[in-house]
């Protein structure tokens, strides 16, 4: 098991000591470990609201802060996935992570929440997403990685505001990405609660 998976891989089960911050239907900005998530964000020309935010932490290691932006408040993955408009998950790195570890963690999170049939149905899109993550490479403390969705473009990934790779058409891929944090087997139960605005 590599070092990142030992101390910081998002695909690890929730451990004691993890915590998150969030308020239902956040009407105000949320600060997470010094990272400020504004109450609203413009994605693909639509104004989204901050649904919640939280911290991914393992023992003494702060891995990243995360914020979820949606057209309307949602209290579950089903409610978030049912929304057809733009959506955003913003990660702000709180430590350096190698590109290979980032990809492996993403892959583990996807596999944990996809059935074999579901994975096969979006295999092409998953391959494209992994190629984008490969292009991103190593991520550094302070980097901001956005996973955005819009009905017109599909899934887009940006690093520090700069697009990486091409947009990946289709909604099923983004729903699978959301499940990494909000699914039945989330990477972190406390973080899931924070993103869903639950205390």
TrEMBL record:
<keyword id="KW-0732">Signal</keyword>
<protein>
    <recommendedName>
        <fullName>Chalcone isomerase domain-containing protein</fullName>
    </recommendedName>
</protein>
<dbReference type="InterPro" id="IPR036298">
    <property type="entry name" value="Chalcone_isomerase_sf"/>
</dbReference>
<dbReference type="Pfam" id="PF16036">
    <property type="entry name" value="Chalcone_3"/>
</dbReference>
<dbReference type="InterPro" id="IPR016087">
    <property type="entry name" value="Chalcone_isomerase"/>
</dbReference>
<feature type="domain" description="Chalcone isomerase">
    <location>
        <begin position="31"/>
        <end position="197"/>
    </location>
</feature>
<dbReference type="GO" id="GO:0016872">
    <property type="term" value="F:intramolecular lyase activity"/>
</dbReference>
<dbReference type="InterPro" id="IPR016088">
    <property type="entry name" value="Chalcone_isomerase_3-sand"/>
</dbReference>
<feature type="signal peptide">
    <location>
        <begin position="1"/>
        <end position="26"/>
    </location>
</feature>
């Amino acid at each position: 098991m590599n070092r990142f998976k030992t101390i910081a891989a998002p695909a690890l089960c929730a451990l004691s000591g993890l915590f998150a911050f969030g308020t239902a239907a956040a009407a105000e900005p949320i600060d997470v470990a010094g990272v400020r998530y504004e109450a609203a964000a413009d994605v693909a020309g639509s104004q989204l609201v901050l649904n919640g935010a939280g911290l991914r932490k393992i023992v003494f290691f702060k891995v990243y802060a995360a914020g979820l932006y949606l057209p309307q408040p949602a209290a579950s993955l089903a409610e978030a996935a049912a929304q057809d408009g733009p959506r955003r998950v913003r990660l702000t790195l709180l430590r350096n992570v190698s590109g290979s570890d980032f990809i492996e963690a993403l892959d583990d999170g996807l596999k944990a929440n996809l059935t074999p049939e579901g994975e096969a149905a979006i295999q092409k899109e998953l391959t494209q997403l992994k190629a984008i993550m490969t292009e991103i490479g190593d991520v550094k403390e302070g980097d901001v990685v956005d996973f955005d969705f819009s009905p017109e473009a599909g899934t887009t990934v940006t690093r520090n505001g700069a697009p990486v790779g091409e947009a990946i058409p289709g909604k099923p891929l983004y729903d699978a990405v959301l499940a990494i944090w909000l699914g039945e087997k989330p990477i972190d139960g406390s973080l899931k609660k924070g993103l869903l605005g639950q205390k």
